[in-house]
Amino acid sequence: MKSFWKMMFMGAVAGAVGGIAVQRIQAARHWRVQQPYLLHQTALITGASAGIGAAFARALAREGYNLVLIARRADRLQILAEEIQQISPVKIEIFPADLVNTADLARLEARIPQIPNLAVVINNAGFGTGGDFARVPLKPELDMVRLHVIASMTIMHAALPVLANQPNSALINVSSTMSFLPTPKNATYGATKAFLNSFSQAVQGELSTRHVRIQALCPGFTESEFHDIIKMDRARVPAFLWMTADQVVAESLQGMREGRSMVVPGWANKAFYFIATSLPQSLLAPIETAAWRFANSLGIQNILE
Questions:
Q1: Which residues are CB-contacts of 223 (< 8 A; sequence separation ≥ 6)?
Q2: Which run of H or E residues covers position 229?
Q3: Directed axis angle between helix 102-111 and helix 152-163, to 10°?
Q4: How far is residue 36's CA from residue 238's CA, in Å, rounded to a whole number?
Q5: Contact at 8 Å (CB) between 179 and 218?
Q6: Closest CA to 230 of 151, 135, 140, 299
Q7: What are the average pLDDT values for consecutive 10-residue runs of the chain, which has 305 residues?
Q8: Closest by alpha carbon to 255, among 244, 242, 265, 267?
Q9: What are phi and psi of 42, to 5 degrees?
Q10: What is the largest distance, in Å, between two alpha-carbon atoms of the chain?
Q11: How much is the pTM?
C-alpha cells in the first residue's frame, strides 16, 4: 500500500513539473514590458491589511504602482501605507470598507471608474469558517458567499471596462487549493473558491481585448493570520506545505506577466492540483476521505472573528 502511495506521489510531482512546462509554453504571448511608474498606473487591492493582500501591496509598490488599499480596518491600512512609503514614494489611497456590507460595496463600485490609470485589481478579501455546515451558524456562511462571490463579481464588473483602457492590465482573483476538491469542514469556503476559478476563466474567454489578463491564484497553506482566525492547529501541518505570503505573491505576479489564467504556487500545491484534476473519481475517493480525517485533526472551530 505504501508503494502505491509513493508511486502516486512521484507521479503527481512528475505531472506537476510537466504542467509547469506546458504553462510556460502556453504563456509565449508575454506582455510588452513597461514600467508602471512611467504610465502612472494604479493597483487596487482588497483585503490589503494583512497576509497576501499586504504582500501584494508591498510588491506592487516596489514596482512603482500607485495603490488603492481596501480593508475593514483603517488603522491597519494606515500602518501599512506608512511602511510602504518609507521605501516606495508611490501615491496611496486608503479606502476602509467592509465588502460584505451592501453600502460599502456600492461605494467601492462607484469609486472604481474614477481611479486614475487603474491597471491591476486584486480581489483578495476573504475569510474562512470551520465545522460541519449543518451545525455552524448560517450568517457567516452567507457572508462568505457575499464576500468571495458577490463582492468579487461586483468589483470585476466595475473594473473590466476601466482595465480595457490600460496597457498590460490584470485582474487577480485569490482562490485556493481548496477549490480543487470538496473540502469537509470548509464546505462553503471551498465552493466559493471553486466558483472563482470557473468564473475567472470563463470571463477571460469572453474578453475581446488581449491585454487584459484574468488570473485565478490558488495558494495552499500560507503563513498569515487567516489560519489563526479559525483556530487551526498549525503544528499538525507539515512544514514543507507552508509558503510565505511573499512567495505566493511573487509567483502570482510572474504568472501575471506571462498571461497565465491560473497560478498554483509551490511544488506541493502543484502536485495536489495534478492529483485533484487528473485522477478518476474512483482513485480520488480515498484521498477525499484522508482529507476529511486531516481536517478533523486540525481542530478547526466553528467561529468567525
A1: 242, 243, 244, 245
A2: helix 226-229
A3: 10
A4: 39
A5: yes
A6: 299
A7: 50 50 42 59 97 97 97 97 94 98 98 97 93 92 98 98 92 95 86 97 85 94 60 55 91 94 93 81 60 54 36
A8: 265
A9: -125, 145
A10: 60
A11: 0.81
